[in-house]
Amino acid sequence: MSFDPQSLEKIPRHVALIMDGNGRWAQERGLPRIEGHKEGAQSVRAVLRAAAQAGVEFITVYAFSTENWKRPAREVDGLMKLLISSLNAYEQELHDNHIRLRVMGQFDRLPLLVRKRLKKTLDATAHYTDHTFIIALSYGSRMEIADASRQIAEKVKSGELQAKEIDEQMISDHLYLPDVPDPELMVRTSGELRLSNFLLWQLSYSEFHITDTYWPDFREEQFFQALEAYNARDRRYGGVKKSR
Ligand code: IPE
Ligand code: IPE
Ligand code: MG
Questions:
Q1: Which of 15, 134, 165, 208 is least enclosed by beta carbons within 10 angstroms?
Q2: Is 20 considered catalytic here?
Q3: Which of 22, 61, 65 should be mutated for ligand 1, with most atoms under 8 A from CB?
């Protein structure tokens, strides 16, 4: 598909995506759920490519939530293995496009092999500054906010901070990736109208684009459509519409 990023007035710096519908995609084809996840991994690749083309600096994908640990062990296992094989297969593309990999979530809860494999790519891409690819893994937003609150409370207890100094910026500064700007755009596939514990704080003023497309069918074209939808939005931040 031919797409000209110059045709868009504004390009978001950061797009966050809830990759949903892999299971239904597989089910509709009479395939095991893991096949949907495998096809979904190709969509991640497509989105990274499209984001680089459009000039989007940060991509965050919700790959595994704190709630997803409740899924059958077989599926959880399959997802962890898929993560390792995807890193093996696509790491070169991160280098080719100067993309830094980062992760957010409960890193210590991941299996040792996954942590080791991630660490290798995290270190190998840490010097890239053009683009950042963030995987939310064993991530839950309420947990993130609770972790931030605990850290701030400890600083107050030790006297490093005073309670009256706590403001919005301080809370942002204690989240998992304080240096990453809030997403301007959040995309959720497969038509579900909920956040499922994703970036509750960071998405306070983001635009939402919900598409019925299942994640495995979400490729470059669908990503560009999301950017176009974002362009048509009028962001007012609680103010009044500016007359042109
Ligand atoms: C999203 O697809 C991937 C993960 C949550 C890991 P699902 O696995 O949730 O697919 P559906 O929602 O069951 O179709
Ligand atoms: C949200 O999808 C989590 C991820 C995409 C990783 P889920 O399929 O787990 O969310 P619910 O169950 O529909 O809320
Ligand atoms: Mg789902």
A1: 165
A2: yes
A3: 22
